[in-house]
Specification:
This protein is an all-alpha fold. It has 32 helices and two strands. It has a two-stranded antiparallel sheet with strand order 1-2.
Length: about 550
């Protein structure tokens, strides 16, 4: 009865029968304990598990290797790493099962280098590793990024003639695929007698990670498919920004889970097709699926970029009703309010975050800065430093942009110097670009030019472009011509550089020169990306593109 209930849908009944057995005066033997332990492992009853361990000792079965291994498995199911180590040390002669539980426990807790030490010790005691041991080693190699050890494990298997289980074979293919050695993965795959959907999916993931979508597509079309395989292919197309192919796969799916919907919503967001993201959200809700953390972060990103405040507020209301208190969601929410031009609401969200990480502080600083509140950005930056939160590169980028918009030259210079001298952060091109923009907006064009020339590395087209924009702002034609020549040589197919120069000429009524620039663009095949507007009406988004007269 205990054995039957241990394997049933109601394993707790096995424990009830064990207690009754004791009450009726029957003494458990070495056949009883493994079944009761199995039931406890399934119910995750820690207190009963400890009591049963005491019973094992009391009735004199602690040195029974089968029972000891069952207890090791039970403590592993409870996630009690220390108990496993203590019990393992008490086993006089651990066998391969005992060692495998120990090795798996070390791997699960991130002690990947200790896994190798345990395997070496096991071999010294004369216990030969089996396919389960080797699978644990392969998993550790993946997590430590040690491809060399992984290949040695495969070589060991071949030389020793160890029977390769289906799981080990799949593990080796997964290892080769994740390390990008698709040739070896393909060879092993072709030698396999039985290929499961897991095997095919490992190969599929490998080709997608290498960016070989054509080969991945061939594998996908020939393989048996489950929802994981569909989601892997969806993600591959979404990351490659091929949303038309992703849409075809999505619509062909017999069943879709939340991962499928999230992949499509985030994919369209990253491809800047915000209307499609919102359409998919409505469709997902219509099918009765509730958004999770990934969906919510993606949705707030969509609403922020598209400026759809009303939809963002509706999603915010959903978050509050569901009492979702994850920092990633709250940061995405305050970022959405900032992008929609409502920094006051963003600040209210920020104040509700109990433990503010550098991510939350940075997003709030960037948010108020982009809304022209440079002084508030500086106050937040100082408050952040006072609370012991170390700013990162993005924090400085946000506060420097705020200084640039507000014309706070003195504060901007101090912050830029403090980056390296106080906080030990090496400025990137983006920070230099902010400083050039700051000096340029303030009319300090010569100082900005000297700043670029004094950079430790050669400035890119973006930094020179910031100075070109400042020349247009202040009508500095001579310097503008000089810089335009530099940037068009560095980035000859960027339409914005030519348009800035053309506008500089136009502002000075030099129409012939302006026309020459436009003609050069046309003869070089350079086209300006058309602008568009998103207008929300009655809960629907409408996109209007410049020059499009269609109804």
């Amino acid at each position: 009865m205990i054995r039957g209930y241990a394997s049933s849908f109601n394993p707790s009944k096995a424990m009830s029968f064990y207690v009754k057995m004791l009450q009726f005066g029957f003494v458990p033997n070495n056949y009883t304990f493994p079944f009761v332990i199995k039931a406890l492992s399934r119910t995750k009853d820690y207190f009963f598990g400890e009591a049963l361990h005491c019973s094992v000792i009391k009735f004199g079965h602690i040195f029974d290797l089968h029972i000891a291994n069952s207890l090791l498995h039970m403590y592993a199911s409870f996630g009690l790493s220390n108990d496993i180590m203590i019990l393992f040390d008490e086993i006089p002669e651990p066998d391969i099962v005992s060692w495998n539980v120990l090795i798996d426990n070390l791997g699960q807790n991130g002690f990947f280098y200790e896994v190798l030490g345990a395997v070496n010790e096991m071999c010294r005691y004369g216990v030969e590793p089996n396919s389960v041991t080797l699978l644990g080693l392969v998993s550790s190699c993946l997590k430590t990024g040690d491809f060399g050890i992984g290949k040695l494990i495969h070589l060991y298997v071949i030389k020793k003639g160890i029977h390769i289980s289906e799981n080990l074979e799949n593990g080796l293919i997964d290892m080769y695929a994740k390390f990008g050695d698709m040739e070896s993965a393909d060879k092993l795959f072709n030698r396999m007698q039985i290929k499961t959907v897991v095997t095919w999916t490992s190969l599929l993931v490998g080709f997608i990670q290498k960016g070989e979508l054509a080969k991945a597509s061939v594998i996908f079309n020939h393989m048996p498919k489950d929802i994981t395989a569909y989601n892997v292919m969806l993600n591959g197309y979404a990351e490659a920004r091929d949303m038309s192919s992703a849409e075809m796969i999505f619509r062909a799916m017999p069943n879709r889970d939340l991962v499928s919907w999230n992949t499509m919503i985030v994919g369209y967001t990253q491809s800047k097709k915000y209307m499609k993201s919102l359409e998919l959200l409505r469709e997902m809700l219509w099918f009765g699926l509730k958004p999770d953390r990934i969906t919510l972060v993606g949705l707030f990103s969509v609403c922020g970029y598209a400026g759809v405040l009303r939809i963002g507020e509706a999603v915010h209301s959903f978050v509050e009703k569901q009492n979702i208190k994850e920092e990633e969601v709250e940061v995405a929410l305050l970022d959405m309010y900032s992008k929609c031009g409502d920094p006051e609401k963003a600040l209210r969200v920020f104040e509700t975050i109990p433990r503010k990480s550098v991510l939350a502080w940075t997003n709030m600083i960037v948010g108020v800065a982009m809304n022209g509140l440079a002084n508030e950005a500086l106050m937040l930056f100082n408050q952040m430093c006072d609370e012991g939160i170390k700013p990162n590169e993005i924090t400085f980028l946000g506060v420097l942009c705020g200084c640039s918009y507000a014309g706070l030259v003195k504060e901007g210079k101090w912050l830029f110097n403090a980056m390296s001298q106080v906080h030990g952060i090496t400025p990137r091109f983006e920070h230099y670009g902010c400083m050039v923009d700051l000096l340029g907006r303030a009319g300090l064009l010569k100082e900005a030019e000297m700043f670029i020339q004094d950079m430790p590395e050669k400035a890119d087209a973006g930094i020179w472009g910031a100075l070109l924009g400042a020349c247009k702002m202040h009508g500095e034609v001579q310097l503008g011509e000089k810089i335009a020549k530099i940037v068009t040589q560095m980035d000859p197919y960027h339409s914005g550089r030519y348009i800035l120069l053309s506008n500089i000429y136009a502002a000075e009524n030099r129409w012939i020169d302006a026309e020459k620039v436009r003609k050069k663009m046309k003869s070089s095949g350079i086209h300006k990306t058309p602008g568009f507007s998103l207008v929300e009406m009655k809960g629907e988004m409408h996109q209007f593109i410049v020059g499009n007269h269609s109804l």
